C-alpha cells in the first residue's frame, strides 16, 4: 500500500466541521501525561502514541465535535489494536450523560497519516461509516507555527484499477483485481474553532494559571495556593505538638504544664465538631451563604435586564422620532 496521505489530497465532501477547544485540551493533556510517564523512548506497547474517540453531533453536513475520551490499545504483530470492549463500555457511559452525542471519529498524534493509521481507522468503521481522524502534531515549533498543530482528515476509498486499464476487457478476473487494488486514503478537511461561554471562562483560567507567579495570575490559583500553604503549616505544627507529647510521655523531655494544658484545651475542642448543635449551626450558616449568593446572582441578572430594557427603549424612541420627522417633512412638501 502507498502512503495514506500525499500532502495534496483535499476533501470534497462539503462537510462543515466545527471543533471545540475542550477536544484540543483533552488530546494535548493525554499526550503530555503519556510522554512524562513513559519518556520519549518506545516501550513494550510499541512506539509512543495515543488513541482516543471524539464525540459530538451531526446534522446533515454540519459536524460539531464537543468532547473526547481516551482509549487503551495493544501492540500486536506491529499493529495497534484498540480495546473494543472498553470502547463500547465507555461510549455507553457517555450516552447516559450526553444522549445527543454520537461517535464522530478518533484521534492520535503524528506529522501525517500513515499505513498504521489506516489500520486503526478501519477498526472504527464498525461503529461509524465515515469516521473523522484528528491528528495532533507535537513536533511543530509553536514559535514559528501559524496555525494550530491539529489536522482533521476524512477517509476516501481510492480505486487502484479498472477494466479499461486492463486492456479494455471486462472480466471477473479484472474486476477482482481492481477491487483488491482499491485502498482507503485520507483527505484533509477544513475546520473552524467555536467556543462557548463556559469554555471561554475555562480557557481564560487555564491561560492565567500557567502564569500564576506573575501579577496576571489567576485569583483562584492564588487563593488555593494560600490555602495549601496554610494547611501545610497547620500539619507541621500538629506534628511538632505530637512529637512533644510523645517525648514527654517517654520521659525524654521535662513536662511543661502550661503547654500541656493548652494542648489539652485544643484536643477537648475537637469533639464539638461532630456534635448535633455544631452540625445544625453549620448547615444554617451554609444555607445563609448560598442564599446570599443566589440573591446576588438574581440582582446581577435583574440589573442586566434593566440595562437591556433601557437600550431597547432608547432605540425604539429614536426610531419613532425618525419616522415622525420624515412624516412631517412629507406633509410640509405636500402642502
Question: Which SSEs are present, and which pair or pack?
Answer:
Blueprint (H helix, E strand, L loop, with lengths): L15 E4 L1 H18 L13 E8 L2 E9 L2 E4 L2 E4 L1 H14 L4 E8 L5 H10 L7 E5 L13 E9 L13 H10 L1 E7 L1 E3 L3 H13 L9 H32 L6 H13 L6 H59 L1
Parallel strand pairs: 1-3, 1-10, 6-7
Antiparallel strand pairs: 2-3, 2-6, 4-5, 7-8, 8-9
Protein traits:
alpha/beta, single chain, 335 residues, 8 helices, two-stranded antiparallel ribbon, 8-stranded mixed beta sheet
Task: Give unreliable regions as ranges.
Answer: 40-44, 161-170, 172-181, 325-335
Shape summary: extended
Beta-strand share of residues: 15-25%
Multimerization status: single chain
- Give, in spatial order, the strands making up the sheet with the most strands: 9-8-7-6-2-3-1-10
Tell me the radius of gyration.
32 Å
| Cα end-to-end separation | 86 Å
Number of strands: 10
Describe the protein.
- There is one protein chain.
- The protein is α/β, with parallel strands linked by helices.
- Helix content is 50%, strand content 18%.
- It is built from eight helices and ten strands.
- It has helices at residues 21-38, 84-97, 115-124, 172-181, 197-209, 219-250, 257-269, 276-334, and strands spanning 16-19, 52-59, 62-70, 73-76, 79-82, 102-109, 132-136, 150-158, 183-189, 191-193.
- The strands form two sheets. It has an eight-stranded mixed β-sheet. It has a two-stranded antiparallel ribbon with strand order 4-5.
- The N and C termini lie far apart (86 Å).
- The model is unreliable at 40-44, 161-170, 172-181 and 325-335 (pLDDT under 50).
